[in-house]
Specification:
single chain, 153 residues, 6-stranded antiparallel β-sheet, 7% helix, globular
Amino acid sequence: MITNHITNIAVYKSLSPLIAQAIEFIENTDLQQLALGKHIIVPDKVTAFVNQYDTKVEAECLPESHRQNIDIQVIIKGHELFRYETLVNQEVSVAYDADSDVMFYKENPQHEIILNENECVIFFPFDIHQPELQAVENQPENVVKMVIKIKVK
């Protein structure tokens, strides 16, 4: 897991050519004007999804991981709490679904971070993450977030 402000994200372009293309999309796009929905960056390899929602309580957000994608998640508006930890041998609550590339876990991750506007996090297939959580308990907040899915397999 990597976290940073989007003004510093260029340093991660060297991780892979597809990550570089995702970062160039972030750098060259007015995120405040980006329409909600799906944006193809590299067909079948890099896709951005812009969503708007209210943050939730812990019981409504299951910890998850992906096998086929890296996530770059960028907060465009609002604040969001993420929980995360390295995938080791955590107990699975919902088996892996290859079509949606997601597996869910029983226990909440140990570590947490609050992301603010224009901050991002990169989750790899070896990271469990629990997104969409309220940054302040019992205070849902409207968030606009872009999730870029980068194929790794």
